[in-house]
Amino acid sequence: MRGKDSGVEKERKPWWLYLNLLGLDAPLIAVIWLFLFAQTWRVDYHPWQAYAALGFAVWTFRIAMKLLQGSMSSDDFSFPMVHRKSLKVAAVITGFSAIILTVMNFPLSVYPYLLVGAVFVAGHFALTLFSSREENEIGYAKHAMGGVAFAFGTALTAHVYLPSLGLRELILSREFICFAVLCLLASSAMELWERTGKPASDGEAGSMDEIALSLPLTLLGAAALIFAVQDDLMTARPFYYGILTGAALLQVLNRTRGRFGLETLRVLTVLCLLAPGIIFKSYPLGG
Fold first, then answer.
1. Which range of residues forms the domain containing residue 141?
2. What's the total number of domains in the chain?
3. Is-contact 31 48, C-beta < 8 A?
4. Would you say residue 286 lies in a domain?
């Protein structure tokens, strides 16, 4: 009986949830922030194929993660399981499209970046598969690797068009580190909210998880503000203002999450990352 009810419930999803259900949220976030990376680093030549390749690649991995998580779930009526055949076809098409665009349009220097990115992605998949399934334990290592992989893939698509710089400069850049931290905090926040529900803490473990989210968000926002103020040429200020805004929005959402259901929280979490990129991508640059 519960299975039938679950199946009916899955068919009645409101239209605004399909951005998340279809995995289109991650590609949109990546493409918007790619523009910010390119703008911040003053990339002179940045073809549209770079944005298309990134969007297709991220969507492929997003679909793969949804199918992996769906296969690990006992809910056969979840969206990924009900539509797994269509999602697999979409993943193959977008994956090949990303490969073709990369081979035909990117400089040869992209391949060392891709090798490092592949290690991050493989690590995220491995941690997702083998991470602890304890009910009250948050998979911080999994989220950290996922945030680094997502941020690295987004940033490299701009950084590879800066021939005078290499992998070391990308990995040590403040912009990459700040965006990776923002992504991993957004990811871990969603798992925390799924496990603990309303903001009222359930014992010491719940309190520690709350601190593990609120404190890094506060520190990230403070660091972004400091980096923005230190940027005398104002070329990086839009980026850091975006980081600051995203951290602030996640902090507000964490405090008010008891008003929303989990599906709404997923969409709002996406908006916390998407809105700052849209707002600050047209911010006037100095210099």
1. 2-280
2. 1
3. no
4. no
